[in-house]
Specification:
alpha/beta; OB fold (Dihydrolipoamide Acetyltransferase, E2P); Rossmann fold; 7-stranded parallel beta sheet; 6-stranded parallel beta sheet; 21 strands; about 40% helix; about 20% strand; globular; binds adenosine-5'-diphosphate; binds magnesium ion
Length: about 700
């Protein structure tokens, strides 16, 4: 009989029948403690509670059946299968085995009674079940059927479904034997919260999910509620961990970075345009953070084209004036290179150095940059992921700016921050994103951040007209391009593919570029994709920018940040394959100048109803927030917050598509815990995030 124990620290090896082999396999599933087993929930259930008469069995049905062996023989040529026919008077079914032992064959004697569970399907000789679970029934009276639904668990190679059921059965006994405090299964969700949401207590929910009574079907409300209760707890743990990170940050110190008025004036005077009111307001909000002595954690949201780059440069001045370095992280090399050019143009005349660090720099070149970063001179370092690497040591990092945050994970941005601390001072952090995340979802990712919004576009932007047309009208589109270019305008042609494969995407773009070059011989065309060297990419971009090119064929590498105001027509192939946020980003490359712009979404028919509706949202509006909200309505939060956009937000039980509506409650519950049950936060975080998340125990 199990003794009361702390199940979160009780290793699975304490269970019966867990040897080194199983232990290793279970670890692959992330299962180390008995508590982990309890949180390993079934994927689905099988109903083995009732015996279905064979006469009522239908193809496609999963069922428990019983019958006497009528005949058992080997059938087929070459690789033969064993067919065993059982009948119960109302009908029959053939059990088919492709793999079997001689012993198995011998045991299936005529006249014995078998109980089988499997999926029926129609076969050549009538209904059959391939490789059913079966057992001979010898007892008199016959054994009872199951009284509860049979759970089916996610498995890994080498761990059998039966083993998993048995182990979880043992874990449940431990849980039941340790109902009181100290067993690691405490209910950290405060009773008032449970009551408001009508959630069952923790162990009750867990028990129900592993052992649902016979009368609960998948639609059973109790099961759904139990599952929702656990998903809720997981989301709550994530939210609390962000909040706790934020609180820990608040307790740290940061350098006071005050922008020199003379430097700021010189900067603004050199700009070819005045800042918009929104840009000035947001700059002010950031500057106030930077002199607070506490590390800033701020998100700047601003739709594509709202002018976030110049705001970043402006606030970099604060760190630079105070003798600190600034690190700017961009999601692609293309964007890093573009930023380097812009920042160099703005900051070098003021006497500040601007460096570039990207993965493809090697040898001497790379070493020179690394040495410069280590040296005392303040400056801006712009780079990609390369900035995270071990060898990168900043002399005195005061401010980290992360552009297009949605491409990076929470963990990545925290890692960069950890490069900073010097004499107990942590760098400030600014995150910029154009991906408008609907409010409810934002809390999951950004609960640790203050938010500023640039809610105004620079003046003089002409609207972008968007047309949705089938690929069968390609020839027409191409001739329209020719006319457009004849008027001195520039064009993007964007190739997309379902596959995340770089190679395939590049090949497709190469083919399209060749085709366009052949059809439009007088037009200056270049190709840009992810597999080109940084210098080649930069050269092509530069030529496009200085109008030496008319048409740029590109893959989605140009999705973020690229800025060429004279380009005013964009063709996007296969837009139905991309998310709306991504399409909005792509389209944001045009409409940056005073001339009116056009975007052609050239889809591959046939288009599903949903796809039609989604593309028409883009035709109707160019407001990023509205697009995000409507996409959320159409597809649900799981899709909108795809891993790609969130930088891998992964949950064990929660599923945003299903559990998204819980998020507002999560926020309220977090507040309750922080206010009335502060001791519950850390155990909850530990239970769900373990030590996997560095900031959980900051
Ligand atoms: P995003 O917010 O998408 O990163 P960018 O920073 O790339 O936008 O800016 C888009 C374009 O708008 C750039 O060409 C930039 O020079 C220009 N721009 C930024 N601020 C202003 C402004 N206040 N007035 C006019 N143009 C501006
Ligand atoms: Mg940008």
């Amino acid at each position: 009989m199990p003794q009361p124990q702390a199940l979160d620290t009780l290793p699975v090896s304490s269970l019966k029948g867990v040897g080194a082999h199983t232990l290793e396999r279970l670890e692959k599933l992330g299962i180390k403690s008995v508590q982990d087993l309890l949180f390993h929930l079934p994927l689905r259930y099988e109903d083995r509670t009732q015996i279905i008469p064979l006469g009522q069995l239908r193809p496609g049905q999963q069922a428990l059946v019983e019958g006497r062996v009528e005949v058992c023989e080997l059938l087929g040529k070459g690789r033969r299968s064993l067919i065993c026919r059982i009948g119960d008077g109302s009908g029959f079914v053939n059990l088919r085995f492709f793999y079997f032992t001689a012993r198995q064959q011998a045991a299936l004697k005529r006249g014995i009674l078998l109980r089988c569970f499997g999926e029926a399907r129609s076969g050549f000789y009538g209904l059959e079940m391939a490789h059913p679970d079966y057992e001979p029934i010898t007892g008199n009276p016959p054994e009872q059927t199951e009284t509860r639904l049979t759970p089916v668990y996610p498995l890994t190679e080498g761990v059998h479904q039966k083993t998993m059921r048995r182990l979880i059965g043992q874990a449940l006994e431990w849980g039941a034997a340790s109902p009181s405090a100290g067993n690691g299964l405490e209910d950290w969700i405060p009773p008032p919260v449970l009551k408001t949401l009508r959630f069952p207590p923790l162990f009750e929910a867990i028990h129900l999910l592993h052992r649902p009574p016979a009368d609960s079907s998948r639609e059973n409300n109790d099961l759904t509620v139990a599952q929702r209760r656990l998903a809720f707890e997981e989301l709550l743990a994530h939210h609390l961990s962000l909040c706790s990170f934020r609180a820990a940050t608040r307790a740290q110190c940061a350098p006071v970075l005050k922008t020199s008025a003379a430097v700021a004036a010189a900067f603004r005077n050199r700009l070819p345009f005045p800042l918009t009111a929104a840009q000035r307001r947001v700059t002010g909000e950031i500057e106030a953070d930077l002199v607070s002595g506490k590390p800033m954690l701020r998100l700047v949201q601003g739709d594509v084209g709202s002018g976030k780059t110049v705001v970043a440069a402006h606030i970099a001045l604060a760190a630079l004036s105070a003798g600190y370095q600034v690190a700017i992280m961009a999601p692609t090399e293309l964007l890093a290179e573009q930023h380097r050019r812009n920042f160099a143009g703005w900051l070098e005349p003021l006497g500040f150095r601007v460096l570039l660090l990207v993965g493809k720099q090697k040898g001497r070149e790379r070493q020179d940059v690394l040495n410069a970063i280590k040296s005392e001179q303040p400056g801006v370092v712009i780079g990609t992921h390369a900035l995270f690497q071990e060898q990168v040591r900043f002399y005195r990092l005061g401010l980290v700016i992360i552009d297009e945050q949605h491409r990076f994970g929470v963990h990545q941005r925290l890692a960069l921050r950890e490069k900073g601390p010097r004499n107990g001072l942590y760098p400030h952090q600014l995150i910029m994103t154009a991906t408008p995340i609907p409010r409810t979802l934002a809390m999951l990712e950004y609960a640790d951040l203050d938010v500023s919004t640039i809610d105004e576009l620079p003046p003089g932007r002409a609207p972008v007209h968007t047309a949705v047309i089938p690929a069968s009208r390609r020839a027409e589109v191409i001739s329209r391009i020719a006319a457009w270019i004849a008027q001195g305008r520039q064009v993007y042609w964007v190739c997309t593919l379902i596959e995340e494969s770089d190679v395939l995407q590049c090949e497709a773009a190469e083919k399209t570029a060749a085709l366009l070059a052949e059809t439009l011989p007088d037009i200056r065309i270049a190709l840009i994709h992810g597999r080109l060297k940084p210098l080649q990419k930069e050269a092509a971009m530069q030529r496009f920018k200085s109008r030496e090119l008319d048409l740029l064929v590109a893959t989605t590498v140009i999705e973020v940040g690229v800025d060429v105001p004279n380009a005013s027509l964009m063709v996007i192939e296969n837009p139905e394959r991309l998310g709306l946020a991504q399409l909005h980003q792509l389209r944001g490359r045009i409409g940056r100048g005073p001339k009116e712009s056009h975007c052609v979404l050239m889809y591959q028919p046939p288009l599903s109803e949903l796809a039609k509706e989604r593309l028409s949202i883009l035709r109707e509006t160019s407001d990023g927030f509205e697009i995000a909200e409507r996409d959320l309505e159409l597809r649900g939060p799981g899709e909108v917050l795809g891993t790609r956009q969130t930088g891998q937000l992964q949950f064990r039980i929660a599923d945003l598509a299903r559990d998204g509506p819980l998020l507002p409650h999560v926020k309220v519950a977090a507040t309750t815990i922080q206010r009335d049950y502060p001791g519950h936060a850390q155990p909850l975080i530990r239970r769900w995030l373990g030590n996997a998340v560095r900031y959980a125990d900051v």
